[in-house]
Design brief:
The complex is a heterodimer of chains A (440) and B (204). With 440 residues, chain A is mostly beta strands. Chain A contains four helices and 30 strands. Chain A folds into two domains: 130 residues, 3-Layer(aba) Sandwich (Rossmann fold); 261 residues, Neuraminidase. In chain A, strands 1, 2, 3, 4, 5 and 6 form a six-stranded mixed β-sheet that branches. In chain A, helix 2 packs across helix 4. Chain B has 204 residues and is α+β, with helices and mostly antiparallel strands. In chain B, helix 5 packs across helix 6. The relative contact order of chain B is 0.12. Chain B has two domains: 85 residues; 107 residues, OmpA-like domain (60s Ribosomal Protein L30, Chain: A, 2-Layer Sandwich), CATH 3.30.1330.60. Chain B is elongated, with a radius of gyration of 28 Å. In chain B, strands 1-4-2-3 form a four-stranded mixed β-sheet. The two termini of chain B are 25 Å apart. Classes of the chains: A mainly beta (440), B alpha+beta (204).
Chain lengths: 440, 204
């Protein structure tokens, strides 16, 4: 009930704001109760002189449809429902009869053309607002055939940018831990579920993978020397170097947005406290000073604040403090057990896991404590959230068929997707979303 | 606890001192003879004749055999004793102590187990213990790693308070990583919220 009125208020606010700034706001990615937009994607037209040997006509529409579905914002209309005669119709606004599309319920329409001699490729993409009968955005890309997937992804980015204000995240990966019996290793997988790669072969317990802001390294904890020590691995060279190996816990927690500092939890002084370590000169500074358990620190996107978990008030709750350790303030008051904070890259919201009805689910809250919303309602629960760049998605852990799996959900709680796993015997945990990478 | 050790130690030293002093004064002649026996070979070389040598040899031979048998018996007994101790040490693996959800305080049964562990370690000082702290699967890995450490440290503080040398007690947390029961219900979870004890001979 509270959610509906909050959502309504948010939508009204944004519409009002948008009439003075944007021409039209299509998709408010945070509004709860969002419905997927019906979109039609036609086969591309061969606008060149060479025969379409690679069947690019169908390839482009198929790939676009696939990626549009993966974004979680669109319902792609089945081609069988199309009314338009593709021979007659054009790919620019003049050659389109929009009533053919509004009749079948499409809100958006994608048309395109290509010209290729088998090596070079020129491709045009256009997305139209069917209701208003106008072009939203059009692009032409000229490159080689090998780059055709990149062209599709670039245009998807343009669509999302125009409709939601944020680029897509197809050029990101999620790192996570996969455990079988008493050995766990770090893996990465692409946002679209492809390219599962095993990154560590340490044959021990390995935990808490954290990406560097340039996407080249991963900070993590491992028992490879018999104690939970912290390490950094270079993904290109595969070399692993030790960061801290103090007596007790060395929990890798987060890499600062500017890449200069690491947050960790050490218990060397007798109880679990949060420390910050300078990457360059190795200097270590303690930030918390409290006999309670203080763990799971994470930076705000501008690096000025830290959210963390403490049980100093009797049960585990989320707190925030300045990046120098001052100004500690409690954030969560609902629920008896709130852990695992992750700060949205958009800066205003913090996702976390909270105990409710006997299991854990993902919640999000404003970074000043307001607008508390439950994001997941899965039977298998939701734990360990991590935001995507741009804040459109959250990855988290849910138990499915008795095993922990990595899932992705839109930031409004819709469109749950389960990512792949190295095998049925593995239990997955600790997902961490990469920055934007050079994947394509 | 430390004061007791000091008192006992001092008494022991005093007793030993008195004993040595007393025996030393009375038995000086015996010491001289024993020395003569050991130096048998070199004494023969100088003054004594062969028969004396033979006699000495016979006299020496017998104690050696008896000594050898005594030594063999002793080493058998020592070996058995050691194996028994190793078995007792290993048995502590079956005596986990348990905790309530999100808690690391010790209940009466836990304190009882820990007292028995401390008593054993105080007697068998060649052994040390590693206390592993564990949690059930609920909640985040990070928080559970910290909670597991609290559980291990609570047990360590208890046995150290009973006099066990702090250098002989180490702790490690495995959080929720190594459950004994992989089930997803309270029956399994309650078995996983535990401290586990590995008792083993100290490395010299």
């Amino acid at each position: 009930m509270l959610r509906k009125s909050v959502g309504l208020m948010m939508s009204i606010f944004i519409l009002f704001w948008s009439s003075t700034v944007w021409s039209k706001v299509y998709i408010d990615i945070n509004a709860p109760g969002f419905q997927k937009y019906p979109i039609a994607v036609t086969d591309f037209k061969n606008i060149g002189t060479t025969d379409d040997r690679e069947n690019l006509s169908v390839w482009f529409s198929y790939q676009l449809s696939r990626y549009l579905k993966l974004t979680g914002f669109f319902n792609v209309i089945n081609k069988g429902a199309f009314l338009e005669d593709p021979e007659q119709a054009g790919i620019t606004i003049e050659g389109i009869n929009f009533s053919d599309w509004s009749t079948i319920g499409a809100d958006f329409l994608i048309k395109g053309g290509f010209d290729s001699d088998g090596k070079a490729l020129s491709a045009e993409f256009r997305i139209f607002d069917v209701v208003e009968g106008r072009l939203i955005v059009g692009k032409r890309y000229e490159d080689t055939m090998e780059k055709r997937k990149l062209m599709v992804l670039k245009f998807i980015d343009e669509i999302l940018l125009a409709l939601t204000g944020e680029r897509g995240v197809f050029n990101t990966r999620i790192a996570f831990v996969a455990k079988d019996r008493d050995v766990s290793e770090i893996y990465t997988i692409n946002f679209d579920g492809t390219d599962l790669i095993k990154r560590t072969r340490l044959e021990s317990l390995t935990m808490f993978p954290q990406w560097s802001p340039d996407g080249r390294q991963i900070f993590f904890t491992s028992y490879l020397n018999g104690n939970p020590d912290s390490y950094i691995m270079n993904l290109e060279t595969k070399r692993v170097r030790e960061v801290t190996s103090f007596r007790g816990l060395n929990m890798a927690s987060a890499w600062s947005p500017d890449g200069s500092k690491l947050l960790l939890v050490l218990s060397r002084d007798g109880n679990e406290e949060i420390y910050v370590k300078d990457v360059e000169n190795g200097g270590l500074r303690r930030l918390t000073n409290n006999p309670a358990i203080d763990v799971s620190p994470t930076w705000s996107p501008d690096g000025s604040m830290i959210a963390f978990v403490s049980n100093r008030s009797g049960s585990p709750q989320i707190f925030t403090m300045d990046s120098d350790g001052r100004g500690t303030s409690r954030l969560t008051y609902e629920g008896s057990y709130n852990t695992s904070p992750s700060w949205s890259p958009r800066g205003k919201r913090i996702a976390y896991e909270g105990a409710t009805n006997g299991r854990f689910q993902i919640f999000s809250i404003d970074d000043d404590g307001g607008n508390f919303v439950q994001l997941t309602f899965e039977r298998g629960g939701g734990e360990s959230p991590s935001w995507s760049p741009g804040g459109m998605y959250v990855t988290f852990v849910s138990t499915i068929d008795g095993k922990k799996k990595i899932c992705i959900i839109n930031s409004n709680g819709l469109n749950l997707r389960v990512l792949g796993s190295p095998g049925r015997s593995f239990s997955l945990d600790s997902p961490s979303w990469s920055p934007r990478l050079n994947l394509y | 606890m430390k004061r007791n050790v000091w008192i006992v130690g001092s008494l022991a030293i005093i007793c030993a001192f008195v004993f040595v002093f007393a025996t030393g004064c009375a038995k000086t002649p015996v010491v001289k003879e024993e020395v003569a026996l050991q130096e048998g070979e070199s004494v023969i070389a100088t003054a004594e004749t062969a028969p004396a040598k033979v006699e000495e040899k016979e006299v020496v031979a017998q104690p050696k055999e008896e000594a050898k048998k005594v030594v063999e018996d002793t080493s058998m007994k020592e070996k058995e004793l050691w194996e028994r101790l190793l078995a007792e040490a290993s048995d502590f693996k079956n005596r986990d102590i348990y905790f309530a959800f999100d808690r690391y305080d010790l209940n009466a049964k836990s304190r009882d187990n820990l007292t028995k562990l401390a008593d054993w370690l105080l007697v068998n000082t060649e052994f040390e213990v590693t206390i592993e702290g564990h949690c059930d699967e609920r909640g985040t890995t990070e928080y559970n790693l910290a909670l597991g450490e609290r559980r291990a440290e609570a047990a360590k503080a208890y046995v150290v308070n009973l006099g066990v040398d702090i250098g002989k007690v180490s702790t490690i947390s495995y959080g929720e990583e190594l459950p004994v029961d992989p089930g997803h219900n309270e029956a399994a979870w309650s078995k996983n919220r535990r401290d586990h004890f590995l008792v083993y001979p100290s490395k010299k």
